[in-house]
Structure formats: C-alpha cells, structure tokens
Amino acid sequence: MRKTWELIRPTFVLVVICLVISSLLALTYNLAGVAELANAGYSSEQLAEFASTALPEADELKQVKVSTEDESFHSAYKAQNGTGMAIVLVTKGYNSDGMTVMYGFDNGGVMRGVCVIAQNETPGIGDKVATDAEYLGRFAGQPADSFTVDTVAGATKTSTGLIN
C-alpha cells in the first residue's frame, strides 16, 4: 500500500495544483469582468470616431437589437438623423482572430464607408489593407448586395475578409 501511494502521490499533487490554479484563474477572469468587456458595446466617442469613416453623414449612432444566427455579426447601429445604418462584423482575414469592421450603409443600401475597428493582420502586408484609406475608400458607393472591389496582391485573405 505504501509503495502504491508513493507512485500515485506525484500525480495526485499535480492534479490538485492544476485544479487550484484553474479555479483561481476562473475567479480572476470573472471578477475582472473580462467576459463582459468582450461583449460590451462601444462608447459614444468611439462610435463617433468609427462612424466618421463608415457613415460620415450620421450625427449619432444608437444601437439596434438584431436577432441573427450569423456568427460574424457583432452589432448594428442606426443613425439618429436617419441617414443610414452601420453594421459591425467580425470577419476572418489571414489571422484567425479576425478583424472587427464597421460597414456603413445609406437608406438605399449603398455602402458609405468602411472602418476597421480592430485587426491583428500581418504587419506590413495585411495590416496595410486594413489601414489604407485609399483601399477602404473603394468600398464607398458599392451596393450592399454586390461588391466589385479587387483584392490586394500579397494580402488576398485580408482583402477577401473585408469584401465578404
């Protein structure tokens, strides 16, 4: 019996340590509010900044509740002055984390602009597409149901993610 315990003891101690550390990590995660921050909306200042590119005619954006099963959908906003709507999606580029992008549309379904809110694309290649105002400007004026924006050579996945 004593020899058996001496063989099992290191495994038992390791399992107990893992359980304690996992419990503390879960507690810290919940107490810090990380889960709520990940799903939080944007402040009015952030929305104004994003909308200045995605929906320049909008005065103020208010969140609209939308029911969808689309996993890429994050949130939708309506312009208070009635100039259109903005949709925030998480789209896949080259990086598996995805890009958070705001697309602005006028009331006729024509895209007014695109604002990349967050991205972790490859520095110097994919991130140029996500931050290049000239490339993002090509989306403006495109109808919502069909885009004719070319992909960028060397950053095809990032470009395709924005287009999709």
Number of helices: 6
The SSE string, one letter per element, is HHHEEEEEHHH
Strand content: 15-25%
Helix content: 40-55%
Instruction: Indicate the structural class.
Output: alpha+beta
Compute the CA-based radius of gyration. 23 Å
CA-based shape = elongated
Question: Taking all residues together, what is the mean pLDDT?
Answer: 77
How would you characterize the overall build of this protein?
The chain is α+β, with helices and mostly antiparallel strands and 164 residues long. It is elongated. The model is unreliable at 34-40 (pLDDT under 50). Strands 1-2-3-4-5 form a five-stranded antiparallel sheet. The chain has helices at residues 2-32, 34-39, 44-54, 126-131, 133-137, 156-163; strands spanning 61-64, 73-79, 84-91, 99-106, 111-118. Strand 3 (84-91) and strand 4 form a beta hairpin.
Features:
five-stranded antiparallel beta sheet, elongated, 164 residues, 6 helices, single chain, alpha+beta, 21% strand
